[in-house]
Design a protein that fits this description.
308 residues; alpha+beta; DNA polymerase, domain 1; hpI Integrase, Chain A; 3-stranded antiparallel sheet; 11 helices; 8 strands
């Protein structure tokens, strides 16, 4: 069996020595390579071919002509995804085009190592990319490398152990309104959106879930009255919105409605077709988050404050 040993240079970098016994001369042989991936590939080929370096070398040369690049592997991973939403595919494609293809995309996938990924993370930070963005793109690269490992392009995922900037914050990101603060907002809320706003607060549903509700999703005659959450607004590959299933199976749920909310919902449900959106703009269209936030929710904070 061939073996691998690691050498640490004075500058802290590493090289890897593969040793084996030649089957013809019975002499010990050794070869130094730059990366662990190269060492593991050579060891695997030597072990599979009776420790014949000539056969292993030929296999390596043949393999080099067919090994895909990092960009090609990420693209293949995206193409192999089962039932992704078009919005997810588009997001991954943008990540590949903006943050991978022109940085590490040209590297043969079997040559990608810790140093490349470490430098990639540092370059993303130097460009001012947020820790969350770096984590998201690294997640795509790592998932693609898992695919490459399963397709036997590489012996192991080089993303394992790569350190990324922390996304932890000293303060809790969650901010909660007091009852008085919420009532102040509701006072200046447009009449049309007061019931919608109360629904968000009383049910805890996400904006995209609440605005995707159909009249038929509400059952005011059950005991207790309920609303069924099983869909949300999503974006397709052309950034157009459509109603699709919730992101996860756990997102599908039935929520009980309190009597105060039931009273508010009666006028929106009564005598309306079940396939109509429950909450709409005056034109009967989807409520857009940005416009709602700017013109209604945030409106309270732009009111003149009384002088002390």
């Amino acid at each position: 069996m061939a073996s691998i040993s690691t050498r640490v240079k004075k500058d802290g970098s590493k090289s890897f020595v593969v040793r084996w016994r030649d089957p013809g001369t019975r002499k010990n042989q050794g070869l130094t390579v730059a990366t662990q991936a190269e060492a593991e590939t050579l060891k695997r080929l030597l072990d599979a071919n009776g420790q014949s370096f000539a056969i292993a070398q030929q296999a390596i040369l043949s393999n080099q002509a067919t090994v895909p690049t990092v960009a090609e592997v990420v693209q293949e991973h995206i193409d192999l995804l089962i039932r992704p939403s078009s919005g997810t595919t588009r997001t991954y494609q943008v990540m590949l085009d903006l943050h991978i293809r022109n940085v590490i995309g040209h590297i043969p996938v079997d040559k990608l190592d810790y140093r490349h990924l470490n430098q990639w993370a540092k370059s993303m930070m130097a460009k001012g990319k947020s820790p969350k963005t770096i984590h998201n793109v690294h997640g795509l690269i790592s998932a693609a490398m898992n695919t490459a490992e399963m397709l036997r392009y590489i012996p192991r995922n080089p993303c394992r152990g790569v350190q990324l900037p922390s996304i932890d914050k000293a303060e809790d990101e969650a901010m909660f309104l007091t009852h008085s603060e919420y009532n102040m907002i509701l006072e200046v809320m447009g009449e049309r959106y007061k019931t919608f706003t109360n629904f968000l607060v009383m049910t805890g549903t996400r904006f995209g879930e609440a605005t995707a509700l159909k009249v038929a999703d509400v059952d005011l005659f059950s005991k207790p009255p309920t609303v069924r959450i099983n869909k949300a607004w999503k974006r397709d590959g052309q950034s157009q919105y459509y109603i699709g299933a919730t992101k996860t199976g756990a997102g599908k749920r039935t929520i009980g409605l309190n009597p105060a909310l039931v009273e508010l919902l009666v006028p929106l449900v009564a005598s309306r077709p079940g396939d109509e959106l429950l909450f709409t703009t005056p034109k009967g269209e989807r409520i857009i988050h940005k416009l709602y936030w700017h013109h209604y929710w945030f409106r309270q904070f732009r009111q003149p404050k009384p002088m002390d």
